[in-house]
Amino acid sequence: MSRPSAQPAQSCYWYAGQLLTGDRLSLPLHEPGLLFGATVFTTLRVYEQALDHPWTAWSRHCQRIARSLQTFHWPEPDWSRIRQGAEKLAPTFPVLRVTIFPDGRELILGRSLPSHLHTWQTQGITAWVAEGSDFQRSLPGHKTGNYLGCWLALQAAQRAQAQEAILLTGQGDWLETSTGNLWGWANGQWFTPPLDEGILPGIMRSLVMQGFQAQHQTVQTAPWLPTQVSQFTYLAYTNSVMPVVPIHTVLQGTASVNYNPDQDQTQQLMNAWQAGTHET
């Protein structure tokens, strides 16, 4: 995968049907999104500046937002207006974050790809295990504005000289990273934590699973106990922006475990993702 090119800093955004410039947004003092984190959002990477590119998975992102809105009994937003705003920003920004407020207003922000993405994809990263109840994610089945637990975990990981955090259950099972879903390889088999453990049903995770199914490969979805993770020879996480990043070192307490950031395994995940997009 080629190194991402530099993109302009945030200079425009879309809010409630309008394309605006600057880096400030005026909201009511009693906005529930500010007071309670009462928003639903999704973050996507726009390939070839096209929302309808199969790798962009625009419809899947909209469907995930719609499911959360239905669960929370919030009104439907103006989907055509959301599409219009995304199309306005897509030629400028390779990454879009679409946020929906409880009354249906939309906020779409654009950003650049991480400047270190190519290095992470080829060399891997260090992850830090976030032990403690302070790092648990609220409403794990939904992407809501209350991401404080994940944000705190990522800040703590960076203080430990790591690039990502691994979240745990109360029993110590590995769940997901602060920004993506986990994948492990051991004894010729792929593993990923099960959804019913309390992880985000990531769109990238779903596409990879679908791709492996199309390739007649079985993925084990049992809980990731400490005895399980010690057997992995390869570890990675996925999300819609990266899309695959191997993990070469995991820090837990005073101990560290090394994994081989094997590019062949990384490519297997990439191939499964791309196969999954064709199965959609």
The poorly predicted ranges are: 1-8
Query: Count of helices?
Result: 8
CATH fold annotation of the largest domain: D-amino Acid Aminotransferase, Chain A, domain 2
> What's the CATH superfamily of the largest domain, by name?
D-amino Acid Aminotransferase, subunit A, domain 2
Distance between the termini: 23 Å
Q: Provide the CATH top-level class of the largest domain.
A: Alpha Beta
User: Helix coverage percent of residues?
Assistant: 25-40%
Domain count: the total is: 2
Question: What's the total count of β strands?
Answer: 14
Query: Multimeric state of these chains?
Result: single chain
Shape: globular
Structural category: alpha+beta
What's the story with the biggest beta sheet?
9 strands, mixed
Second-tier CATH architecture of the largest domain:
Alpha-Beta Barrel
Radius of gyration: 19 Å
**Proportion of beta-strand residues:** 25-35%
Mean pLDDT: 94
Q: SSE order, as H and E?
A: EEHEHHEEHEHEEEEHEHEEEH
Q: Concise description?
A:
The protein has 280 residues and is of the alpha+beta class. It has helices spanning 32-36, 58-72, 79-89, 117-123, 148-159, 203-214, 226-229, 263-279; strands spanning 12-15, 18-21, 40-45, 95-100, 106-111, 125-130, 164-168, 174-177, 181-186, 189-191, 219-220, 234-238, 244-252, 255-258.
Fold and architecture overview:
The chain is an alpha+beta fold and 280 residues long. The chain folds into 2 domains: 12-111, D-amino Acid Aminotransferase, Chain A, domain 1 (2-Layer Sandwich); 117-279, D-amino Acid Aminotransferase, subunit A, domain 2 (D-amino Acid Aminotransferase, Chain A, domain 2), CATH 3.20.10.10. Helices cover 30% and strands 25% of the residues. The protein has helices at residues 32-36, 58-72, 79-89, 117-123, 148-159, 203-214, 226-229, 263-279; strands at 12-15, 18-21, 40-45, 95-100, 106-111, 125-130, 164-168, 174-177, 181-186, 189-191, 219-220, 234-238, 244-252, 255-258. The strands form 2 sheets. Strands 6, 7, 8, 9, 10, 11, 12, 13 and 14 form a 9-stranded mixed β-sheet that branches. A 5-stranded antiparallel β-sheet has the order 2-1-5-4-3, with helices on one face. A hairpin with a 2-residue loop joins β1 (12-15) and β2 (18-21). It comes from Leptolyngbya iicbica LK.
